[in-house]
Request: fold
Amino acid sequence: MADLALTPPPLQTSKIPATPSFGIGASEGLKRTQIAKAAKDFEASFLSVMMGQMFQGDSLKGTLTGGEGEDAFKAFMSDAMAKQVVRSGGIGLAATVQKEMLKLQGLSEETKT
Reply:
């Protein structure tokens, strides 16, 4: 019966270095990642508001619209479209915001090589 006991596989050691290979510390790399995400989230939020304004009004009402529930889901559609625009390269707002956020954190715009 002891032969049938399940044993966990041996732990594999990770070969990922403690610091990224491009010459910056782990905490700085984490900050840069968080700043980039925040900048993209800001751009998506901005675009969502802008697109929400485009879809307001009665000009879109008609036979080929979403019916009575359409108003409830317009915000979701605006958010999804804005996120897709940002994933596709955005309008350049994230890059500008990211640059300014890096400056405020005392980090250079470019990573060290």
